[in-house]
Specification:
By secondary structure, this protein is of the alpha/beta class. The chain folds into 3 domains: about 110 residues, 4-hydroxy-3-methylbut-2-enyl diphosphate reductase, catalytic domain (Cobalt-precorrin-4 Transmethylase, domain 1, 3-Layer(aba) Sandwich), CATH 3.40.1010; about 90 residues, Rossmann fold; about 90 residues, 3-Layer(aba) Sandwich (Cobalt-precorrin-4 Transmethylase, domain 1). The chain has 11 helices and 13 strands. A 5-stranded mixed sheet has the order 1-2-13-11-12, sandwiched between helices. Helix 2 links the parallel strand 3 and strand 4. The N terminus is likely disordered.
Length: about 325
């Protein structure tokens, strides 16, 4: 097994000494999420008392969104970023970590809004890559998730020259005649899922250029989760159902490590029947998951007595104190 990723065992003081909590690392907040939260916090502080709006979810975690709402930051969510922008008429608008199309930025400035761009630097790199490729005459195949805001922004760079695919069936249905083809990817997808589609694209279009843009944080979390899961009986992924990278962590653990994996938003979502007969429980978290939520889950599991019979009730969260904030302090 690779030593590249740290696997931190529990403290050994579990209620049930036969249960070990494996704290999979790296996990949780990535640099793009930290940068986005920092940018919105600064905007909220500098424009206190003025209208400040998030154009969609800053990051895909409702806890972060709620805490900013308590500071007066309004969430403006809609089927597209352009539609959301129609609802912002004054003040400051914050572009989320997922990025937006050039048209959204141009329209926001034309409306006289103060624009704060919190786009993740990895997503910015993908936008720059697509701009360069299409500017050089390439047709681009973009592997991404339909309905996710990141592909929406990237496709806006050159709508007529970019083809979105999210399955092998989509790849098989492509009809491309361009002599200059390239493929790139949404940053938060599964490394293994995208590789299968890239392999198929190479089979169909041998001259296609490959630019795999899955971010390092996503790759490292997925690889660490799969490696650690092989030594665990079950894996808990702490993250929002809105989070693509959290969902992918569940998927790769299930598909590649052949271990049961469950996505929980908070400690209250844990179910005792998941842990019947378990000796090792792995815990990881999506890149937009507040650290304190993961700590609550770990703390509960370290005090948990493994149930002998499946139960139907949820594990209560009363044993863990409510944190003051889910936002990073720096």
């Amino acid at each position: 097994m690779s030593n590249q990723f740290e696997i931190e065992a529990g403290s050994g003081d579990c209620y049930d000494p036969n249960v070990e909590v494996v704290k999979i690392r790296p996990r949780g907040y990535c640099h793009g999420v930290v940068e986005a939260i920092r940018a919105l916090r600064l905007a909220a502080d500098e424009h206190e008392g003025e209208p400040v709006a998030m154009l969609g979810y800053l990051v895909h975690n409702e806890h972060v969104t709620r805490e900013f709402a308590e500071r007066g930051v309004k969430l403006v969510d809609a089927p597209s970023r352009l539609a959301a922008l129609d609802e912002v008429t004054e003040g400051t608008v914050v572009l989320t970590a997922h990025g937006v199309s050039p048209e959204v930025k141009e329209r926001a400035l034309a409306k006289g809004l103060n624009v704060v761009d919190a786009t993740c630097s990895d997503v910015v790199r993908t936008h720059d890559l697509v701009q360069r490729l299409t500017g050089e005459g390439y047709t681009v195949v973009y592997i991404g998730k339909v309905g996710h805001p990141e592909p929406e922004g990237v496709l806006g760079e050159a709508p007529n020259l970019i083809h979105l695919v999210q399955s092998l069936e989509d790849v098989d249905s492509l009809e491309l005649s361009s002599s200059k083809l390239a493929v790139t990817t949404q940053t938060t997808l599964s490394l293994w899922d995208t590789q299968a589609m890239i392999d198929r694209l190479r089979q169909r279009f041998p001259h296609i250029e490959v630019h795999n843009e899955i971010c390092s944080a996503t790759q490292e979390r997925q690889q660490a989760a799969v490696e650690a899961a092989k030594e665990c009986d079950v894996v808990i992924v702490v993250g929002s159902a809105r989070s693509s990278n959290s969902q992918r962590l569940v998927q790769v653990v299930s598909d590649l490590a052949n271990r049961p994996a469950y996505l929980v938003d908070t400690v209250a979502d844990l179910k005792p029947e998941w842990f019947v007969g378990c000796a090792r429980v792995g815990v990881t978290a999506g890149a937009s998951t507040p650290t304190v939520l993961t700590r609550e889950v770990i703390a509960y599991l370290e005090q948990m007595e493994t149930p002998e019979e499946p139960g139907s009730s949820r594990v209560g969260a009363a044993a863990v104190a409510k944190p003051e904030s889910h936002l990073p302090t720096n």
